[in-house]
Amino acid sequence: MRPEQSVPSRSLEPVQELHDAPLAPLTTFRLGGPAARLITATTDDEVVAAVREADDAGTPLLVIGGGSNLVIGDKGFAGTALRIATKGFSLDGTRLELAAGEVWTDAVARSVEAGLAGIECLAGIPGSAGATPIQNVGAYGQEVSSTITEVIAYDREARETVTLTNAECEFSYRHSRFKADPERHVVLRVRFGLEDAEGLSAPVKYAETARALGVEPGDRVPLDAARETVLKLRAGKGMVLDPEDHDTWSAGSFFTNPILTDEAFAAFHARVEERLGADVVPPAYAAGEGHTKTSAAWLIDKSGFTKGYGTGPARISTKHTLALTNRGGATTEDLLALAREVVAGVHEAFGITLVNEPVTVNASL
Hints:
Helices cover about 25% and strands about 25% of the residues. The chain is of the alpha+beta class.
């Protein structure tokens, strides 16, 4: 980690500030109460100034990007909410730098148009570029940790802007040092090292994507074909934002896929045989020595929570069991009640406790 010498930014207008500001419209769930104060920052300097001001005053701070991984409690946030709306897309050969406020799916489209591979299978994921390293965003066989080279962030403890290498980000499955210590850093920019494969994608890793493309895992395909196929797969599961489709009023996958030790997986397998029969084989994917990953969506479905489950304003998506949705008029507590029901049901059925993927603010399962 090193101090960043300069981060280009210019402010043409005064920073926008609102009081008793609704936060629900800033989230893909469209849920949550208001913030005592909402600041919208359009430059890196404005972001840093807002963070410093809150820290100096001892005011609670909530950083909001695209709001696609955020569950805000019905009482809202009694502090300063900082919406990062910075812009910046810069290509230098195969090196890509994105401002934290850049719309992620737009950045993926532009990288594909430039003929660069490495993030094409992350198309359609809602949210901002600055959120991608926090969650180590991944889908369809790609994770941002495979292409991120550096993250520029404001270090609230050191009170300076720093550059962290890929190794210093401490990436793991849907996790990073930023998620482990969420109060320490505010991401300003993300740098990627992409690949010029003469218009072809990175090797296709995900079996579902390969089938849809009509190729074998490990094959390369035209970049446009990879991106469009992923978008179609995501849309079929309600995972592409559409204001008219309540199946997309969600945070995408609400639970992470459990990673089990060999002992825990053996116990889980025994529960599957007992509940569903000896001929049923649960999903299993290698997850490092002594560990196996299984499917949260499979667990939810086999526990009796099928697509469309629920009778209230918060229900499981009609397209994908892993997405919990606001059907319109829901409260955050409605959503959390459904989530708790699912967690309890899966634990009762299979002895596994699901972990929520979205960040909760003044709310908990």
